[in-house]
Structures are given as C-alpha cells and as structure tokens.
TrEMBL record, chains A, B:
Cofactors required: Mn(2+)
SUPFAM superfamilies the UniProt entry points to: HIT-like (SSF54197)
Protein name: Bis(5'-adenosyl)-triphosphatase
Binding annotation for substrate: 30, 86, 92-95, 101
Active site per UniProt: 99 (tele-amp-histidine intermediate)
Entry annotated with the keyword Thylakoid: no
UniProt organism field: Solanum tuberosum
InterPro entries: Bis(5'-adenosyl)-TPase_reg (IPR051884), FHIT (IPR039383), Histidine_triad_CS (IPR019808), HIT-like (IPR011146), HIT-like_sf (IPR036265)
Reactions this protein catalyses: P(1),P(3)-bis(5'-adenosyl) triphosphate + H2O = AMP + ADP + 2 H(+)
EC number: 3.6.1.29
Pfam families the UniProt entry points to: HIT
C-alpha cells in the first residue's frame, strides 16, 4: 500500500524518502543520519505517544522495525542494532509522532558504545530544527535521500 | 500464566522479581536500577537477537512493554518513557537474551537527556557483572527487589 506522501508529525515526507511501508507503518531514511545508516520507522497514524497506538499498530510497527533492522544490518555488514523510542519530550522526543530509531552497529563504530546515544540525542534535536527549516532541504538533497531510499527499497 | 522461575540468558530470575507476565513475555525489576525505576521486559524464550523472535513473540513483547511503560509512567508521575533494545554485543548488549529497557522519565531527571544513555550503557555492563557475581545478591537484596515487584504487580 503506497501513499504519495506521508506525515511525520506536522511535516510532509516525500514518498521518495520512504523505502518500505505496510498498512500501519512506514520506514524512512533520516534527514540527518547519525551514522551512514540511521533510519526511522513510524506508524502511519500520527500519535505522539507509544501508548496511544492500538495493538494492531504496535505489532505492525515492531514487526516492521524487526524486518527493516534485519535487512539493513545484513546489507551494511553490521553485527548489531540499536532500537530506541524517545517516547515523550522528557525522553528527548522532538517530533510529536512516534518513531523508532534503528541504527546498524559495528565494532568500533563509536569509540565507546554509549556515544551513540549522545549522538542520537543531538541528531534528534537537529532533525527537528532541520525539518522546521526544511523548505530548501539544506541538509541532504531530496535526490540524495531518494537514492538511499531506492537502494533500501530493493531489499524488501 | 505464572512460572516458578524465569531464565534471563544463563541466569535464573526468581519469580519474586517478576511483576507481570504473559504467555510469551515477562517484566522484571532491574538488579541495578538506573533511576529509582528501570525495568526490563523479555521474551520467555531465550534468544539473543530481536530478529529471532516470531511475529507472535514480537507483538506480545511490545504490547507488554507498552502496557508496563504506561502503568509505571503513571504510577511514578513521570511524563515520558525511554524504550531501548541493545540488540547484539556491538550495540552494548551484555546478557545474550533479548530485553527491552523501560525507564520512566521526568523533567530534570538527568541534566542533559542523553546522559540517560551513558548511564544505561554503564548499567547494562554492571548488570552482567552483577549477575555473574550474583550468588549472594550483593546489589539489591532479593527482599528489596521482591518488594518493588510486589508493588508493581498490583498495577496489572
């Protein structure tokens, strides 16, 4: 089921940035990637908090995240995955639409493992700022993002 | 469905530490809590990686996490939740059994939000060390953990 665009909180996401979708969820490349690979999985329905999702949406979201994580880990020859939901502002959420961060991990990608989270937190803030300023897509061009999404779309 | 004990990787978890369980998942208080509240949700079946879970297990695990998070957030008058899976050693996993960290969050609980993750990472390592040394439960007594679990059990 493909839409022509998707909403991520108040922001419109071009379908070119979306590389996988189901009835309830979609996976998009990140505007400000943390490592070369860092994607988001969101429910199609805009809700801020994880607890607002129905059981069908919750199941679908995580089965999607599982599938996406597995494919990207293998494709990028990684060996582990970080999955995080910053669920609510006091947990670092900036865009008020549930989203799972998925980051394939390799030995030595960060000097200390926990640095990934510092970086994640900074990126979440930057993502919001970027989306706010994003009329001109100064971060990554839509072409660049579309290219990454095209590449991942083939995996599913 | 209640078992007399649960396995967490190679470690036996006393049912007193478990405050909620379903056919596929269980929730336990943490041996080395990060904040006063920090619990884990695990699949009953011992698998190391998230992708090894069946769709039924995956759905149940996250519906359980959603329920546990919601109840603990409200009970502890928090306003957000951190959910994380460190899926594999390169993501900081120490015990080779899938587990979701759930941490209710409040304004100002950490000076900077990302400090939660530094702390999480340290705690994951300490948890492993503790479980390894844990014959005598030097961290938190079984009584103390049982008390916390009793308190949470009433919420479900």
């Amino acid at each position: 089921m493909e839409a022509t665009s998707y909403m991520f909180g108040p922001y419109k996401i071009d379908k070119k940035e979306v590389f996988y979708s189901t009835d309830f969820s979609y996976a998009l490349v990140n505007l400000r990637p943390l490592l070369p690979v860092h994607v988001l999985v969101c429910p199609r329905r805009e809700v801020q908090r994880f607890a607002e999702l129905t059981t069908d949406e919750t199941s679908d979201l995580w089965i999607t995240a599982q599938k996406v994580g597995k494919q990207l880990e293998s494709y990028h020859k990684a060996s582990s995955l970080t999955f995080t939901i910053q669920d609510g502002p006091q947990a670092g959420q900036t865009v008020p639409h549930v989203h799972i961060h998925i980051i394939p991990r390799k030995s030595g990608d960060f000097e200390k493992n926990d640095e990934i989270y510092d970086a994640l937190d900074v990126k979440e803030k930057e993502m919001k700022q970027s989306l706010d300023l994003d009329k001109e897509r100064k971060d990554r061009s839509i072409e660049e993002m579309a290219e990454e999404a095209d590449e991942y779309r083939k995996l599913f």
